[in-house]
Amino acid sequence: MDIKIFVGNLPFSATDEEVRELFAPHGDVSKVTLVTDRHTGQPRGFGFVEMEADGGRKAIAELNGKDFGGRPLRVDEAHSK
Q1: What is the pTM of this model?
Q2: Ordered domains of the chain (ranges, CATH)
Q3: 80 Cβ neighbours under 8 A, 6+ residues apart
């Protein structure tokens, strides 16, 4: 079963592939979605990663606060609205 992970404080230059590579050592990443502003198309600095549950929990523990592109990441399990 997959979990959805919130990834915040991403550099605006981050790509889907870079985020996938960051999470891949922790488990199988099924989907990466970086959020953009609907009017300008510019990145908003956060996104979501879907991956297998065990690896996802490990990734949350190891990547939260890690420097990525000069910014400390905020990584936590996403909760639905």
Answers
A1: 0.93
A2: 2-77 (3.30.70.330)
A3: none
